[in-house]
Every structure is written in structure tokens, then in C-alpha cells.
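Cross-posting from the chemistry board since nobody answered there.

I work mostly on the small-molecule side, so proteins are not my area. We synthesized pyridoxal-5'-phosphate and want a rough idea of how it might sit in this target. Sequence and SMILES are below. Is it possible to get a predicted 3D structure of the two together?
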Amino acid sequence: MQLYSTNNKELRVPFKEAVFNSLPADKGLYMPVIIPTLDAHFIQNLAQFTFQDIAFQIASALIGDALPASTLRRIIDDAIDFEAPVRPLDSGTAVLELFHGPSLAFKDFGARFMSRVMAALSQSDERVLDVLVATSGDTGGAVALGFLGVPGTRVTILYPKGKVSPVQELQLTTNGQNIRAIEVDGTFDDCQALVKEAFNNPELKAALRLTSANSINIARLIPQTFYYFWAYAQLQAQGIRKVVFSVPSGNFGNIGAGLLAYKMGLPVEHFIAATNVNDTVPRFLQSGRYEPRPSVQTLANAMDVGNPSNWVRIMDMFGNDREALARLVSSYTATDAETQDAIRAIFDRYGYVACPHTAIAWLAAKRYRQRHPGTYAAVFLSTAHPCKFPEVFPEELAAKIPMPTQVNDLEGREKQTVALEVDFDAFKRYLMTGQ
Ligand SMILES: *Cc1c(COP(=O)(O)O)cnc(C)c1O
């Protein structure tokens, strides 16, 4: 697999380089030179295969030249070891649950696959891979649990003190082994600035083999295509072939992967980009003007993104043709009040408790159906388990949230974290010496 930069289509780098760099030096995004189309017969018969078989076919088509087939198969079987069920709610609506992995969010797909790909692409004589990540919650948990115990890697997570939920904090801080958590007395932006400075620091770059687990990494995008095909397979098994996906979107990596799946031949009728009031993309699809704004805090905080970093990739896939894109992708925005109403409505109708991000996707799907009646299944993606956001729910609903084993397993585990001021020299010392 060769990749170019969205800022320089002449550039060619191999998959390994794209994985370890995350970003090209020109600050574009890596895109595959060739997006392979999967065999039509395979797609028409997806229902005959397992999730892992389908994932292997997709990964082979994209990166089969970068890793031996047996290695790729082992990575997939190991990384994708949990379910992604489509649950029908009524005759035209279903939810694709992507929260059955260790961190209870869809980011597990990207993080687990990327960690194993990074380990497989590392030579045995290379130094330990030092992964640095700043998190406001969900990313850190997925990366921590995704890399936990992966040989040849060490993860350092920076999170803002007091600003992540209790479940998220346990996921970040109770791992031990090759995972270290730093509690920064500051904001998420401070955490991100410290990580950025580390990547620019010549001494650290010389002493350590640093990499980021950034959401724009191509190795996080690829595994997210898997579950679009798998969802389609499950619907195909029920005789449904017309499918619309509604995707709760922040950085637009998830829906970007859906659109990549479409480009690879998955016959999706339409995509719905569901956002909270951070609505840069919905405004762009309407007006043609891309005007990012500072992010606004909402109940669906994993989607609080004012300038979605994957958007360039999506435009690139569609030749920067907004009208072509707007024919395939609709978008809807929900306020916090609408999100809360949607959570209540989903519960009243279906007895189903949805996390705020998921509720926004459901609401967008409902609005789309009202405008576009027809015979298709509207599948909204559930990106996280509701127990990760307890403060969002009224008590009566909160009491209905089943506690998954992943959370029960965390109870009583000891929090191991290092406290840090917003001080680059202290952070650097910690990275160099472990204290
Ligand atoms: C990260 C995240 C999102 C947004 O996904 P993008 O790929 O950034 O668009 C939505 N919901 C949850 C729960 C998340 O953690």
C-alpha cells in the first residue's frame, strides 16, 4: 500500500511510514493511492462470512503487501475479539452497537488494530515504541487498553485532572504493565500542548522512539471500515439490502471510514453525519463555506470538535466536489436539549438507554426518515456504552443502565497515576527518567 499526502499527491510513502508518522510533514493527511474495490460476489454474499473473515478480506485488499497474510489474520483475530451486533428496534430502525470492546467505545476497533499493526511493523532490534497521547476521555481509554500488554510498546497518557468521568479515569489509571497515566493539573488543551512539544523536542526525539496514537492515523481508520461491512452482512442475512447509516461525528474519522467502505464497494444508500452544535460540517454541506469555529462544550463531549481533523480526507475521497458529497451525505445538528429529549424518547419507545452521542445519531436518522420516507433500514451507530456518561442521565434512566463486566472488573483496582503541573520540563524529565 502506497499513500500520498492530501497536500501533495506526488508524494509516495509505504504503509509503515504512514503508520509511524501519523501525519505527513506537509500537515496533510495520508490517503491510499489506490482504493481497492472488493469483489462484487463477495459483497453480495457477505452474510456467509464471519466478522473476522470480512475484516481480513478488507485488510488484505488495503494493506496485504505490507504484512504477511498470516500476521494480518492473527492481528485481526486478536484485535477484533468482541461483538458488533446490529439490534433491530423497529421495522425500519436498527442500532449498530460498537461498544462491546474493553474500553466500551468504538475507538477500541482503531486502537486495538493500530497497536498490533505497530508491533508487527517494528523490527526486533528497534527500541521500545513510546506512544504519547493526550485525552479528554474516550481516546485515552481505548489507547491504554488497546496497547495493554502489546510487546515492544509503552504508552504515556496525559489527561486533565478532574475532567474525565469515573469509569474513564479507572480505564486510564488502573492498568500497570506498559501503560502510564499522568494526571495534569490543567485542561485537555494543556495536555495536548505538552504532547505536541514533546514531539518537537530534539533531545526527546533522539532519546526515544516516539509515536502518536492520533485519530488521523491510517491504521485507526482502516479497522473502522470493518464494521460497516459487518453491519451490512447482518442486515443482508435478514434480507435487507438498502441501508442508510447515521454516524455520530466529531473528528469525522468514523464516518470517514464508512465512506471509505463505500468507495471499496459497499452499496450504502446514504450516510447521515450527526453532530452536536459543533456544526462546521453541516454548515459547510449547506453553504459550501468551510468555516471552523472554536469548539463548544456539550453533553456529547467526544464530539466537541470545531475543526474536524478527518474532513480533508473525506473531501479528498470525493475529489473536493461538495455537491457529489452532499448527494451521498446529509447532516443534522442537535442541541443539548434535543439530545436529552432524544435519550428520553429512545427509552420511552424502545426501552433502550443510549449514550448522548448515540442519541444524536438516532435523532438525525429520525429526521432523515421524515424527509425521505422509503424502504430502507436506518442504522444508527452506537459509539459508546451509556455507563461512561452517568452524569447525563436522569436518575431513573441511570438506574436502568446495565453495568458491563468491563466496568465491574475495574472496581476496587488501585489508581496509579503521576501528578504533573503544566510544565514541559517536568514532563520531559518524566519521559527521560521515569520520575
Ligand atoms: C470519538 C467519539 C465520537 C466521534 O467520532 P469521530 O470519529 O471523531 O467522528 C463519537 N462518539 C464517541 C462516544 C466517541 O468516543
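Reply from a structural biologist on the board:
Welcome over. Reading the output above for you: Residues 218-237 form the longest helix (20 residues). The chain has a mean pLDDT of 95. Happy to explain the C-alpha cell format if needed.
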